[in-house]
Amino acid sequence: MIFTYMLGIELTQQCNLDCRDCYKGDSKNVFITKEIIEKVFDEVKAADILLLTGGEVHLAYEQLKMVLDIAKEKGCYFGACQATINGTIYDKRIYQLLDDYFGENYEFYISSDSFHDESIKRIYQKDVEDSNDPLHPKSLNDVLKNLEKNYMHEKCVGDQGLPSHLINGGRARNLDCPKYEFDATGYYYQEGKEDCYAVGPILFIGADGYITDGNSELNSREQQSIGHLNKGKIIEQIKQGGIQVKTTSIADFRKFCWNIMQSYFSYEEPHYIFENNKMQKVDRAKDIEYIQEIKKATDLGNHGFEAFQNGTFKDFLVNFPYDFSSYPRDLSLIDHNKKLNK
Ligand code: SF4
Q1: Which of 107, 154, 215, 249 would suit a FRET pair with 208, their CA atoms being 20 to 30 Å apart?
Q2: Is 69 exposed, middle or buried (0-12, 13-18, 19+ CB in 10 A)?
Q3: What is d(CA 232, CA 228) in angstroms, rounded to the nearest whole number?
Q4: CATH T-level fold of 1-286
């Protein structure tokens, strides 16, 4: 039995947008199957967070229903749910499913980098006049305006639930996102009692059955994975290719996972990729400028929160002690070491 910090499930590889240099690659007509989902929930019995991704989650209502039905049938527990969407499609049924399963504990992340803006303009501006799409987004701006109306669930408004978030970065891997190479965030594991394993920080299952990483490219799945569901039990493949961690309790393991996530997001060492279905450490130059920005943003968040708690938030804003004039970075200064796909 596996407990994981974050279980990522790619419902589909199909997407209605075609963002330049989307790190997943071109949209594919691939949807997760019942067989894959059953194999996952035969082993994975609990996760702090269920992460739903695509492609575009809104194109996979049937698959989402299947995931939640099978999870319920097999007695799985999730603390909360996060879904990454592009914000251009709205399907009420998706929210009903999530409502029924998670109550108030789910949230959406909407990618908001410049590639999404370009892609929305390219795809939607053409025939928006006779479109039946109730959102009619002509640009990322429209998507943002629709955010509160459509994605902020009634129960999620204010402090009663989880708000929707915007990701400034998205899946584009070059210009405004500094991650230009694949980095594997999993697979660390800890042995518990009686065939019980903790795995983290993420266990990601592709719609194609690969046990991979949320950042892996669709066309390089075999190389960028720790195995495949057809090859046997997930935990056996993780034990063969992952890294064993010796923490003393599940709480410590969670802390370890949290630190790995932080170092990944701040683009600091260590960096791992998959090679021959094993996690391999690689040397990579630090992106100093990006690390500084992340530190500045973290610092800002901490100080803002402190000020909020002390009732001095207004003063904090008036005497705002941070200079973000160069943020986001001047894109022309970035060394584009890869050609754009589109
Ligand atoms: S970045 Fe996201 S929205 Fe854009 S093409 Fe890729 S999966 Fe679709």
Answers
A1: 107
A2: middle
A3: 8
A4: TIM Barrel (3.20.20)
**Positions of the chain with pLDDT lower than 70, given as ranges:** 21, 125-136, 147-181, 265-267, 287, 289-291, 293-294, 297, 320-342
Q: What's the rounded Cα separation, in Å, for the pair 17 and 139? A: 12
Give the CA count within 13 Å in the CB-facing half-sphere of 189: 23
Structural tokens at position 62: 């049937």
| Residue recorded with tokens 């961690």 | 245
Cβ-based neighbour number of residue 84 at 10 Å = 20
Torsion, CA 110, CA 9, CA 275, CA 278, rounded to 10: 130
Nearest to 228 by CA among 240, 212, 242: 212
Candidate of 16, 17, 120, 122 to mutate for ligand 1, largest count of ligand atoms within 8 Å of Cβ: 17
What separation in Å is there between the alpha carbon of 324 and the centre of ligand 1?
28
* pLDDT per residue as tens digits for the range 50-103: 999 999 999 999 999 999 999 999 999 999 999 988 888 878 888 889 989 998
